[in-house]
């Protein structure tokens, strides 16, 4: 069985292979997220505490947390489940996954060092691996260099030299995210002004519409009043003509 050991503190990892069945017996029937003593793997890991983070069986199927079995099962997966990517909206599919209990069929077991021992392990905890990339978000750059709000973050971006396939050297730097510049403030002011202008314009249009509706109703009332008065006058004239 191959054991893949990762050290988050240094960013390194190491793969060892154990064929001794007596040592592997102490790993069997352990579950994911359980912690084990590093002395099980060898004398160089004495004092280390490791957590089981996952693994693969001999056919490559990954272990899945929450499946309490030491063999392979087929689960009906949907969007959001591990080891499954939805191709169509609302699609569900039955996928094979390995249970979270370590057994004889595990080919690779992943361990993470949760507590380091007294003796450093060469290639794992002896020296940290430098980070290749620096922070990208503006506030994280400020936090790294202890900058004030007035300082220009663009002068502190961590860049690196890159050589292309043609042998040309050039500088690569990340695009700063959430950077507040005069242009972004101008856009924000313009957007806010456009919203306010839209609100005022809607109010003016609504007032003009109400005024027009009131005018039309007044015109209709006046027309009806004049029509009624005309009818009354015609009736009076007809009655006078009959009496005369």
Please render the helix and strand layout as text.
Layout: E1 2-7, E2 12-17, H1 21-25, E3 35-37, E4 49-57, E5 72-77, E6 93-98, E7 106-115, H2 138-145, E8 160-163, E9 169-172, H3 182-243
Parallel strand pairs: 1-7
Antiparallel strand pairs: 1-2, 3-4, 4-7, 5-6, 8-9
What does this structure look like?
The chain is of the alpha+beta class. It has three helices and nine strands. The longest helix is centred in the last third of the chain and has 62 residues, at 182-243.
Summarize it:
It is built from 3 helices and 9 strands.
How many individual helices?
A: 3
Element string (H = helix, E = strand): EEHEEEEEHEEH
Percent helix range: 25-40%
- The percent range for strand residues is 15-25%
Name the overall outline: elongated
Provide the spatial order of strands within the biggest beta sheet.
2-1-7-4-3
Rg value: 39 Å
SS-derived structural category: alpha+beta
Low-confidence stretches: none
- For the termini, the CA-CA separation is 128 Å
Mean pLDDT: 91
Question: How many β strands by DSSP?
Answer: 9
Biggest sheet features: 5 strands, mixed
The oligomeric state of the chains shown is: single chain
What descriptive keywords fit this protein?
two-stranded antiparallel sheet, alpha+beta, 3 helices, 244 residues, 9 strands
């Amino acid at each position: 069985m191959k054991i893949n050991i990762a050290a988050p503190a240094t960013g390194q990892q190491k793969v060892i292979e154990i064929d001794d069945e007596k040592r592997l017996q102490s790993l069997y029937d352990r579950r994911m997220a359980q912690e084990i003593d590093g002395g099980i793997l060898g004398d160089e890991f004495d004092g280390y505490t490791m957590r089981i983070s996952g693994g693969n069986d001999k056919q490559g199927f990954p272990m899945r947390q929450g499946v309490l079995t030491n063999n392979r099962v087929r689960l009906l997966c949907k969007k959001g489940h591990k080891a499954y990517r939805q191709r169509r909206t609302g699609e569900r599919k039955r996928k094979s996954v390995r249970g979270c209990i370590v057994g004889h069929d595990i080919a690779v077991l992943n361990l993470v060092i949760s507590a380091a021992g007294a003796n450093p392990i060469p290639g794992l905890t002896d020296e940290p691996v430098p980070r290749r990339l620096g922070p990208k978000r503006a506030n994280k750059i400020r936090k790294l260099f202890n900058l004030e709000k007035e300082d220009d973050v663009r002068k502190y971006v961590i860049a690196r030299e890159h050589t292309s396939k043609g042998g040309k050297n050039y500088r690569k730097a990340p695009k700063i995210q959430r950077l507040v510049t005069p242009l972004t403030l101008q856009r924000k002011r313009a957007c806010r002004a456009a919203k306010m202008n839209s609100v005022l314009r809607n109010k003016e249009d609504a007032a003009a519409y109400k005024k027009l509706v009131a005018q039309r109703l007044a015109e209709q009332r006046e027309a009806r009043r004049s029509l009624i008065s005309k009818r009354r006058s015609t009736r009076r004239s007809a009655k006078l003509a009959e009496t005369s």
